[in-house]
Design a protein that fits this description.
The protein has 545 residues and is an alpha/beta fold. It has 19 helices and 15 strands. Among the domains are: 84 residues, Gyrase A, domain 2; 55 residues, no CATH class; 117 residues, Isoleucyl-tRNA Synthetase, Domain 1 (Orthogonal Bundle). Helix 5 packs across helix 17, helix 6 packs across helix 7 and helix 17 runs parallel beside helix 19. The structure holds one RNA strand of 76 nucleotides.
Length: 545
RNA sequence: GCGCCCGUAGCUCAGUGGACAGAGCAACGGCCUUCUAAGCCGUCGGCCGGAGGUUCGAAUCCUCCCGGGCGCACCA
């Protein structure tokens, strides 16, 4: 989808194409920002693409299109057959007016038409504190949610968890062992249990709150320790997320699926459609026949459902809840699982675009050039909370979002700690602050910019800034549909950089009042876009620093 | 062995099939009696892992190879 300025060119070019090739095949006309000034403001490769079907050499076709096209621009043919467009200044200024007139609705697109979308992320079971890896997912999911809201979807943020079962029993027993240690009794942590120090802390808290000794790990004790552990850890998780500025609409318990009989229902549905078979006393999903990575067990030979079985039931439930699309944010280690769930939904004839997975790679921390090794099993990890407490929400969020999700994220602690503008999070925020500061000064001088004459914006830097502003809605759209929130971070950094350079070269509040008013208009749009971007990223846009 | 992802400047990374490949950090050198120098400008730095192929055109798409991550449980 093109930007305001690109659309203008595409429409003219489309007419020219029909004039030159009345019976030609339909083509998608692409217009993109030129990467060099001598190539104009925007370029199109239409002649190169349409050359073959037209049976006309690209340069010649380009010449013909150039003669046929009309609009507020000058056109040149260059290179192998590119059409380069040099926009008339008033047209560029119109893009600025457009942004300003939309005000804080600039960057909202009505593509989703209010359809309900669910984004599920984090979904860590309450067995321990959130790690930096969960942090990446939390920010990814939250920013993705914000992007889809801008796209016009009614977004629900969901956290899926399991607070029952074997893992939780092990957690309860591990906590109980720590608790008994405080009574001078030493026992090993159960096989596959939780070694982390956080259970020692929790045991101390519990010890301080109760006189009971719980000398035996009998059923009532297990139930009590399960409840204590789960509720306390869930509280931690919620606090960690709150510190990150992440809030969920729905906390969905896996146990509810079992209680409501949804797991059995799902199995019956799959059986009805012939999507399962029996082997070795277990029930298997015929995933491979439906695009899954491998056939997998749904019901164990002892009759208990597997995680996959429940996961399928969960996604059927999501569908029944009326979402038109669901996005699951997950780590890259769930690939087989994902393909199996998709295979199951295919067997059930769900719309193919109902479920998408936004997959991301892991996070490692780097300090003084060295990667810090983490191991959750041994209870040795950097918690998300420690990271936020040290760096603050905004820096953590910016760093977590600034890389492509599918690339491994190396979190540079030294750079993140830097208070200077080497730190990109600070740099972007400072651009916003700087503009705010100029507006304060303008207010003091009784200068406002209502109805300013934008045609006074004639500097090259000003026109470039306007073209960048014009791209904002499109950046949001592409970042959302391709699950690439890092594009927002890139965009913000680029816009901030352009602004700082402009600020340094051109004075906003000068002797020429009319010019000052025009420049304030430009700054007002930049501020609008920076604020919008920081909002999506979940960061503060401070008026002062 | 099989599947997915990654390999771009010394380091961390951008780069919707387009016209000489970009930024930050690091290194070096400049710019403040003026709106926040918490800033700006410049220099240095690359056979885009390798080899083929598709295309008018490839860092980008396809195949193979090399190197790294993750996964391949009747675990969750």
């Amino acid at each position: 989808m093109p930007t305001y300025l690109e659309r203008l060119i595409i429409e003219s070019l489309s007419e020219a194409y029909r004039a030159v090739r009345p019976d030609g095949p339909t083509v998608t006309i692409e217009v993109r920002p030129s990467d060099r000034p001598e190539f104009g403001d925007y370029s199109s490769n239409l002649a190169l693409i349409a050359s073959r079907s037209a049976g006309i050499p690209p340069r010649e076709l380009a010449e013909r299109l150039m003669k046929a096209v009309g609009g507020p621009f000058r056109v040149e043919v260059a290179g192998p057959g590119f059409l380069n467009f040099f926009l008339a200044r008033p047209t560029i200024h119109a893009a600025l007016s457009e942004a300003l007139s939309r005000s804080d609705r600039f960057g909202f697109i009505d593509e989703g038409e209010g359809k309900r979308a669910q984004i599920e992320f984090v979904s860590s079971n309450p067995t321990g504190p959130l790690t930096v890896g969960h942090g990446r997912q939390a920010v990814l999911g939250d920013v993705l949610s914000a992007l889809y809201e801008r796209l016009g979807y009614d977004v629900e943020r969901e956290y899926y968890f399991n607070d029952e079962g074997r893992q939780i029993d092990l957690l309860a027993e591990s906590l109980w062992v720590r608790f008994r240690e405080l009574h001078g009794e030493s026992r090993p942590i159960p096989e596959g249990g939780y070694e982390g120090d956080y259970l020692r802390e929790m045991a101390k808290d519990l010890r301080a709150e109760t006189e009971e000794e719980f000398s035996e790990f009998d059923p009532p004790t297990r139930e009590r320790f399960r409840r204590e552990a789960v509720s306390r850890i869930t509280e931690w998780i919620k606090e960690d997320l709150a510190k990150l500025g992440v809030r969920f609409d729905t906390w969905f318990s896996e146990a509810d699926l079992h209680r409501a009989g949804k797991v059995e229902e799902a199995l019956v549905e799959l059986e009805k459609r012939g999507g399962v078979y029996e082997k070795d006393g277990a029930v298997w999903l015929a995933a491979e026949r439906h695009g899954g990575a491998k056939d997998s067990v749904l019901i164990r030979s002892d009759g208990r459902p597997t995680y996959l079985m429940v996961d399928i039931a969960y996604h059927i439930d999501k569908f029944r809840r009326g979402f038109s699309r669901v996005i699951d944010v997950q780590g890259s280690d769930h690939q087989v699982e994902q393909s199996c769930v998709k295979a199951a939904l295919r067997i059930l004839d769900f719309p193919d675009d109902f479920l998408s997975y936004a997959v991301h790679q892991f996070v490692s921390l780097k300090e003084k050039g060295e990667i810090k090794r983490m191991s959750t099993r041994a209870g040795r990890f950097f918690t998300l909370r420690a990271l936020i407490d040290e760096l603050g929400r905004d820096v953590v969020r910016y760093f977590m979002i600034s890389r492509r999700p599918e690339a491994h994220l190396e979190f540079d602690l030294d750079l993140a700690r830097s208070e200077s503008l080497d730190n990109p999070a600070t740099y972007v925020k400072y651009a916003h602050t700087r503009i705010a500061s100029i507006f304060r000064k303008a207010a003091g001088m009784k200068i406002d910019h209502a109805g300013a004459d934008l045609s006074l914006l004639a500097e090259e830097e000003e026109l470039e800034l306007i073209k960048k502003i014009d791209r904002f809605p499109e950046v949001i759209r592409v970042a959302a549909v391709s699950f690439a929130p890092h594009m927002l971070a890139e965009y913000a950094l680029d816009l901030a950089r352009s602004f700082h350079a402009y600020y340094d070269k051109h004075r906003v509040l000068g002797d020429d009042i009319e010019l000052s008013r025009a420049r304030l208009s430009l700054l007002s749009a930049i501020k609008l876009v920076l604020k919008g971007t920081l909002d999506i990223l979940g960061m503060d846009a401070p008026e002062e620093m």
